[in-house]
Amino acid sequence: MDQITFHYDTVLSEVHMLLPSAQHLMTRLNGVGQPVFMSKFKILGEKHNNDQGKGMVKEEKYKNPGGSSGNSKTGTHGENAIEGGEENVPFLDEDGDFDIMHRPRKNPLEASDRDLVCPVILKQSSPVLEQEEENTDDEEGHCFKDVIRIEHTMATPLEDVGKQVWRGAFFLADFILSEPALFSGATVLELGAGTGLTSIIMATIAKKVYCTDVGEDLLGMCTRNVTLNKCKMEPAGGEVKVRKLDWLQHGLCTDADMEFSWTEEEVADLHNSTSFIIAADICYDDDLTDGLFRTLYQLCSNFNHTCTIFLSIEKRMNFTLRHMDISCEAYHHFRHCLSQLKHLVDGRCRYKVEQLPSNFAQFLLYERVEQLELWKVTTTPLSSEQA
């Protein structure tokens, strides 16, 4: 169970591969039989941000002996060391063989940094079991200060990548935490929320967050994550509502018999009160990217107020047989859609597109690579300008 099996269509987030000292605790199997893990992500404070750029302290004891100066000694496995003018001779046993001194070994159970792992039998989750697990978490756990707990999967097919945690979500969350005055008390819509990490971070500042995606299993996981971190949102009075929003379909699902559907009041509140729309690292397929920008256009066309959109994306390089070279097709299509939106003239809205600098503070522990970008789109209804 602890080993991830890769197939030809398996995708694994860099967060799960490169995050040091991460505790990925496998908790259950989801409704489709995929292992679900629990990870804890710490929100770093101001001290970390002030210490950025100082670098890490390097150990000195493993430096190259040839580069040292003075009366340094050379080990017996290299040139013979000279001490007090005499040559050090290795010890010999009674048969004349070298008597090699071995370094004493530590007891692995006492000195190991790894926890003892015991196998457990997991069953696929059901609504009853999920409710029991939530109650258990509430009883045994408590509100960890500055720690976000997220359930997620690892090594999924491309269509299930939303069940993993990606650097783009951390990148957007950093920007949110660095601009608390901007989002304070706002109503926010997140598209393609996945595990809900960015919505949870936003709800620690904003008044209301509509956290949207597709797929009952994914939305159920997102709901569990919101419940796990509810105590983080209570001080600011934030609220997260997990709802279904399919970019490839027109309109919002308002069928009361469907889980994660919208009420008429929520639809009206979405159109009248949404000040910000956010999306993190969701442009990896051209059809989905087209659906994203089509959804953005439809939503903003129904707003009678200015709305600001923040989109984070990671520029991923891949080798393609069509080009026989390294290319970034998904990123280039994203930029093409941004350009089309910027120059769109429909008599309804005016769109301003700009790339934001990436030098804001880092509050979450991840590798902030230079390929991470943050884009801002400001939509202004022409009717409001004329008025």
UniProtKB/TrEMBL annotation:
Alphabetized Pfam families for the sequence: Methyltransf_16
Gene Ontology molecular-function annotations: protein methyltransferase activity
Family matches, as InterPro entries: Methyltransf_16, METTL22, SAM-dependent_MTases_sf
Annotated Basic and acidic residues bias: 48-63
Region (Disordered): 48-89
Name listed for the protein in its UniProt record: Methyltransferase 22, Kin17 lysine
Organism listed in the record: Amphiprion percula
Keyword terms of this UniProt record: Methyltransferase, S-adenosyl-L-methionine, Transferase
Any GO BP: methylation
GO cellular component, one term: nucleus
